[in-house]
Amino acid sequence: MSQKNEPTNLGAPRVCxxxxxLEIVGERWSxxxxxxxxxxxxxxxxxxxxxxxxRETLALRLRTLEEAGLIERRQYxxxxxxxxxxxxxxxxxxxPVLAAxxxxxxxxxxxxxxxDAQADVQAPTxxxxxxxx
Length: 133
Fold this sequence. Notes:
The chain is mainly alpha-helical. 50% of the residues lie in helices and 10% in strands.
């Protein structure tokens, strides 16, 4: 991001695709849901266990992600009615973002990795390897 020619005071919020994206996925549970779906976890109960999200919060995030076109809901059982969740192409487009966030977290946020960094041990990186299926 270059700030060379960007005014510093616009008199109003800056129009920005980063801000627009954060409106959709800019909170913890949304990105963790996308992570789980990328790992092949598709059912509500399993997503809830793997993310630690409260039930109501998870239901709301799934609805928001579906409305935004990042995931789709598909019924896998009629009685009782049960749904599973799948990533759309737009949801899969977040994989490089999650990979970069993971790498940043390993370098700067995860305590064990921070200790390794202080000992001059380079944290593992995505390095071209497929991070998500």
